[in-house]
Amino acid sequence: MTVPHQRLSPDPALALRGLVKSFDAKPAVAGIDLDVPAGSFFGLLGPNGAGKTTTLSMAVGLLRPDAGQARILGYDVWADPAAAKARIGVLPDGVRLFDRLTGTELLAYHGLLRGMDAEVVDQRSAELLDVLALGADNRTLVVDYSAGMKKKIGLACAMLHAPRLLVLDEPFEAVDPVSAALIRDILQRYVSGGGTVVFSSHVMAVVERLCSHVAILADGTIRMRGTLAEVRGGRSLEDVFVEVVGGRTATGSELAWL
Ligand SMILES: Nc1ncnc2c1ncn2[C@@H]1O[C@H](COP(=O)(O)OP(=O)(O)OP(=O)(O)O)[C@@H](O)[C@H]1O
To answer: Gene Ontology terms, cellular component aspect (predicted)?
Structure first.
């Protein structure tokens, strides 16, 4: 099932202009312009090393670009970081968390850092832990969580302050199918309520199922973008993806020694 386009407003939730980033003179992102419509469920696809994490990190103010601009709901991420960051929730790559805390403590820390009322934090964090099946009274430290549980607590931290835009780096990676279905459901409801989600993924089925819009990245540039239907053009997303990124097919003679 694809999600219908929801209440798209004319101002993009996220606007990237001319983003460029190199590491040791090697371009990782080579000039990206992208508008993510407000109310959309936006999937960023690309092979390993395409520049997805680098792009999203620059988009949310975690990594300074060599050139270019990122605006979140009209606020420049680098010129007006407080206003921009107040409006987003981010699940970064690798989810670096203060992990010597329980889930409840970590959420309290995030909520209070954002200036939220302690009672609201308590009530929302209990609800998030419950909905994400992490257990509101779980005394396990986050450092001892499984990879999938860490993803889920990272997502809870990103959602706690009810941001208008969620930017999620591979939210479904390492997550079991039951939890993935749960996360899909939560995100679909969030978008139905007017929120915007941008996420990177390698899982075509998830992107096909959830996204209203898709962009395919390769070698630090956007190769294709549009609504899901436009990008697919009546084919499977996987076929389009492989064609766009120039997939290599095995001849059968490789690894003969194996
Ligand atoms: N901190 C860094 N230092 C040096 N090179 C980096 C750094 N971060 C990313 N790169 C390089 O930039 C390129 C893009 O990496 P990036 O992590 O953005 O890709 P990605 O599309 O997210 O890949 P994946 O799907 O494997 O997570 C790669 O060639 C990577 O090696």
So the answer is: plasma membrane
Pocket test for ligand 1, best of 21, 44, 52, 204 (most atoms within 8 A of CB): 52
Element holding 232 (H helix, E strand)? helix 228-232
> Per the structure block, which two tokens stand in for 13?
């939730």
Q: Quote the CA–CA distance of 207 and 180 in Å, as a whole number.
A: 12
Which residue has the least CA distance to atom 24 on ligand 1?
Answer: 48
Distance 137 CA to ligand 1 centre (A): 37
pTM: 0.91
Helix residue ranges per DSSP H, 77-203: 81-86, 103-113, 118-131, 147-159, 177-192
Question: Residue 97 C-alpha to ligand 1 middle, in angstroms?
Answer: 20
Query: 128 burial class (0-12, 13-18, 19+ CB within 10 angstroms)?
Result: buried
